[in-house]
Design a protein that fits this description.
It is a single chain. It is built from 9 helices and 11 strands. It is α/β, with parallel strands linked by helices and 248 residues long. The protein has one domain: Vaccinia Virus protein VP39 (Rossmann fold). The protein has a 7-stranded mixed sheet with strand order 3-2-1-4-5-11-10, sandwiched between helices. It is globular and about 50 Å long.
């Protein structure tokens, strides 16, 4: 995790997220599907894990939530704080490894983690237990993430895919398919820092949630043609993202 922190610190100055004007003009960093799952957050306590610059946290705060946003890269958090201040929003940005959260970070009605977050969790079962312990009765955990099938498939041409990684593997050093790397590294190049990410298949995510005592509310899968560039019309035939909601 310390290596991953350094990796993201190197990238943070180049990842400002949405500009302040985006939020002033009514933009939402949450999708319609995410908003539908979460519902009215006014007066509710929301925790965003692996928040990066906290754009989703700002959206939650604009909708009346009391928000805590956690990330391990201090530069990302500084960017989020500056945007919250410019918008007059009260979001508590906290520097923490999401595997070792301070016990005082607890008592939430919504816990949310977005695309490219869960792949940095080294122990899914432990993470899910930690999350469940931070949830109030009736609270919801929302995981909005790249589909693990997308993580292991590589486009080789129109209507042509190959398997570039192991769907049932876990640890991943680097990326067999460069398009699976964070977008910023595709623009700038990967920092010369060792880092490790993880591919959690859907079965492992659901099983970990159930083992932590959560109740599965919904599991939706979505296509995204932009996630399979060059595949052609059938890019919408396979999932690119998923949205899981589980309650305590």
């Amino acid at each position: 995790m310390s290596q991953n922190r350094e990796y993201w610190e190197r990238l943070a100055p180049h990842r400002p997220g949405e500009p302040v004007e985006f939020f002033v003009e009514g933009g939402s960093a949450l999708t319609k599907s995410e908003l539908a799952i979460v519902g009215d957050v006014s007066g509710r306590r929301v925790l965003q894990l692996a928040c990066s610059t906290g754009d989703e946290s700002l959206t939650f705060a604009q909708r009346g939530a009391a928000v805590t946003a956690v990330d391990l890269a201090p530069s990302h958090l500084a960017t989020g704080r500056a945007k919250a201040a410019a918008l007059g929003l009260n979001v508590e940005f906290v520097e923490h490894d999401m595997m070792t959260l301070d016990p005082r970070i607890t008592g939430f009605d919504v816990i949310y983690i977005s695309w490219g977050g869960l792949c940095w969790v080294p122990d899914l079962s432990e993470w899910m237990r930690l999350v469940a312990d931070r949830m109030n009765p009736g609270a919801v955990l929302v995981i909005s993430e790249h589909h693990p099938l997308w993580e292991v498939l590589t486009v080789r041409g129109e209507n042509t895919l190959s398997v570039s990684s192991d769907y049932f593997g876990i640890g991943r050093d680097g990326y067999a398919d460069p398009l699976k790397a964070p977008e910023i590294t595709r623009r700038l190049g990967t920092p010369d820092v060792p880092h490790r990410s993880y591919v959690w298949n859907l079965g492992s995510v659901v099983t970990a949630a159930l083992a932590a005592g959560l109740t599965l509310q919904s599991l939706q899968e979505f296509p995204d043609p932009d996630s399979y560039p060059g595949l052609g019309d059938r890019a919408t035939y396979i999932p690119a993202t998923y949205l899981l909601a589980a309650t305590r």
